[in-house]
Design goal:
seven-stranded mixed β-sheet; Aspartate Aminotransferase, domain 2; 15 strands; Aspartate Aminotransferase, domain 1; 15% strand; 444 residues; 3 domains; alpha/beta; single chain; four-stranded antiparallel β-sheet
């Protein structure tokens, strides 16, 4: 919170350098009709200590961990974070968001990113991964734009309605002023994407399917990929929970061309929605159209192993408006954490953790059904599922909240046809005692 404001003398000196008489003069290039007139209605200034009290008061009004047990996923997941992550990421050589423009001065950072790329490519089953993007939503939008670059004559992309609603909103924002069309594919009674309409679509560049999807349902990615490729489009597979691939077939094994999604589960706390990690990988044949930065391995003049930003002429710091993308990468901290997390658990650890998540979610799902809940979608699920209750669940949810348990989220806010249906999530952090308490409240 601490900062040192500029003095009036310093402001006057800086304005003189740029040839302006006042701060308002800095905005002369903006037409008057585009400027806000009048005073901005902001509250009066607080002291540092008053501001600290206000922030603590706001924080205390929110039902979040560790004080509350949260049975909500929907794109942000509570997982145990190994102490190795806390110990390593707080070291000064790792705790930086700096972009390594000068490879000779940033070999440690570049090696860390290279290791993250390698582990990501293995987890997702792809040939090459980049140094990460902002978050899962922007990664999906960039994947669709990449599809339009690869399939040059096509003007349309499709996204499953079972993709996270926030991701779809980001994609629409990216595409709304480009002249490209975005269409949505419906989901079926089993909660999986209905790809049957693809055979009637033309000029289709890419189709995005999420698995496990927003309902927690595991998509049949192989069948979806076959239908997408038959329509002449690239298959974009996205995700919000990468740990699922410790148990499920990864997208590369299912024929995906581009894989993207959110990596928050890999060692990062939910933290009110951020910071996030946009994971992105593709087949090697498409690498020159990949957004973001890519770290490569090389040798110096003496034959020693080294790391560089490769194919970087496509990036914003050189090509500007002609760049493949003008999105900044996120490698400084978040990708480093994800790399540390994957290395800490290893393949067998990720598999064991994924199985634990699956088993706990299946236990709650089965017990809620015994207590009278109805499973909305019959497709296979991972650590999330959707149920409907035979009575109003809102009062029960409120009782649980008073016991510091946040039980599910009403999907009516995202899908009007699913009003009164609740999305539950269970990870390894939830005890059986807590799950049983939820079931008891539902059974009363």
């Amino acid at each position: 919170m601490r900062y040192l404001p500029h003095t009036r003398e310093e402001i006057t000196e800086m304005l003189a350098v740029v040839g302006k008489d006042s701060l308002e003069g800095l905005f002369d290039a903006i037409p008057l009709e585009c400027r806000f007139a009048g005073e901005i209605p902001i509250p009066p200034a607080l002291t540092e200590w008053q501001l600290g009290d206000q922030m603590r008061e706001i924080a205390a009004s929110m039902a979040v961990g560790p004080d509350h047990t949260v049975l909500v996923g929907a794109g942000r997941y509570h997982h145990h974070i190994p102490e190795t992550i806390h110990a390593l990421i707080n070291r000064s050589e790792f705790l930086t968001a700096y972009t390594p423009y000068q490879p000779e001065m940033a070999q440690g950072t570049l090696q860390g990113i290279f290791e993250y790329q390698t582990l990501t490519a293995r987890l997702l089953g792809m040939d090459v991964a980049n140094a990460s993007l902002y978050d899962g939503g922007s990664a999906l939008a960039e994947a669709l734009l990449m599809g339009l670059r690869v399939v040059k004559k096509s003007r349309r992309v499709a996204v499953s309605a079972a993709v996270h609603p926030h991701y779809r909103a980001v994609a629409r924002t990216y595409l709304q002023s480009t002249g490209f069309e975005l269409v949505e594919l419906p989901y079926g009674p089993d909660g999986r994407t209905d790809v049957s309409s693809l055979q009637n679509m033309t000029e289709l560049a890419a189709v995005a399917v999420q698995s496990p999807n927003f309902f927690g349902v595991v998509e049949d990615l192989e069948a979806a990929g076959t239908a997408i490729h038959a329509a002449g489009a690239l298959f974009v597979s996205c995700f919000t929970e990468p740990l699922a691939f410790g148990l499920l077939k990864n997208p590369g094994q299912c024929g995906a061309d581009i894989v993207c999604g959110e990596g928050q589960s890999l060692g990062m706390a939910p933290s009110f929605g951020g910071a996030a990690l946009g994971m992105f990988a593709c087949r090697e044949e498409f690498v020159r159209n990949m957004p973001g930065r890519l770290v490569g391995e090389t040798v110096d003049l003496e034959g020693r192993r080294g790391f560089v930003l490769t194919l970087s002429t496509r990036e914003q710091h050189i090509r500007r408006e002609k760049a493949t993308s003008n999105i900044c990468s996120n490698q400084g901290i978040c990708a480093m954490i994800a790399g540390m997390y994957m290395a800490s658990l290893g393949g067998s650890g990720i598999r064991e953790l994924a199985r634990l998540n699956y088993d706990k979610a299946q236990y709650l799902r089965a017990e809620l059904e015994k207590a009278g809940a109805t499973l909305v979608f019959q497709g296979p699920t991972f650590n999330e599922f959707v149920v409907r209750f035979d009575r109003d669940f809102a009062p029960i949810r409120q009782r649980l909240k008073e016991q510091k348990i946040v039980a599910g989220i009403d999907l009516g806010r995202y899908y009007s046809e699913l009003s009164g249906c609740y999305l539950f999530c269970v990870t390894e952090t939830i005890s059986r005692q807590t799950l049983d308490r939820v079931v008891r409240e539902v059974s009363l």
